[in-house]
Design a protein that fits this description.
By secondary structure, this protein is α/β, with parallel strands linked by helices. It is built from 9 helices and 10 strands. The two termini are 30 Å apart. The model has no long low-confidence stretch (mean pLDDT 93).
């Protein structure tokens, strides 16, 4: 459902993505790992059509990110790194705004909100303004907007950032529940999360893919924990 072909992107002298290629299929949960500044967010933004590559391309659900960006955006649920939202809006107002943008109307809108609000455990803050929410609740609202149109592809940048242990457990359970019907890419620095939800692992550093394997195979190959595998592969790159 995602096919990445030689994606490259630079910001001035900084090469954020260097000839990146990989595929993700339906039923895959890909853990997209790397140190800070490795290029993970840049690649995810290109897949979600927020920025254009300098060269290469990718397709999402058969749609090219350069030729068919509107169709790609319709197919993708994207949780950005900082959960951008309008702080003066209430949670309910923001989600209704997202429904407007996604053209979810009438009875379908009510059904959608009735599904997504309890799914993301935001009933108690539904009438609060977003600027008054904790970081964890803001993250849950961001997740709700990514899921609201029931997309085939999810691109989640640090989905459990700011959540408490119970909330993290809930989100991981939600990802596992959705995994069989969707194609999911998860960027995270929490390696226990990778072992809990990811069927595949890509490690990237300085814009280049270093490893494409599974958490289990990586631990077996290197005879150590995933944390130690990560340090071995990325140290000195």
């Amino acid at each position: 459902m995602i096919e990445v072909k030689n994606l490259s992107r630079s910001f001035g002298p900084i090469v954020a993505a260097d000839n990146v290629s990989f595929n993700v299929e339906k039923g895959d949960v890909l853990g997209f790992l790397g140190p800070n500044g490795a290029g993970k967010t840049t690649v995810m933004r290109m897949l979600a059509c927020f920025i254009r590559p300098d060269s290469g391309t990718a397709s999402v659900c058969g749609y090219d990110i350069l030729k068919n960006p509107v169709e790609v955006r319709r197919s993708v649920g994207y949780l950005a790194e900082n959960s951008p939202a309008y702080g003066e809006m209430t949670v309910g107002g923001f989600l209704n705004f997202i429904c407007d943008a996604r053209r979810i109307n009438g009875r379908v809108r009510k059904q959608t909100l009735d599904r997504i609000v309890p799914m993301c455990s935001i009933e108690s803050v539904y009438h609060q303004t977003i600027e008054t929410l904790s970081k964890g609740y803001k993250r849950r609202v961001g997740l709700a907007q990514a899921l609201i149109h029931d997309p085939d592809v999810l691109i989640l940048d640090e989905p459990t950032d700011g959540l408490d242990p119970n909330q993290k457990h809930e989100v991981r359970g939600l990802i596992n529940k959705m995994a069989k019907d969707k194609c999911i890419v998860v960027s995270t620095h929490i390696l226990e999360e990778v072992e809990a939800v990811c069927s595949r692992t890509i490690i990237i550093s300085k814009g280049r893919v270093l490893v494409d394997s599974t958490p289990g195979r990586l631990k077996e190959k290197h005879h150590c924990s995933l944390d130690e595998v990560f340090r071995k592969i990325t140290k000195g790159t």
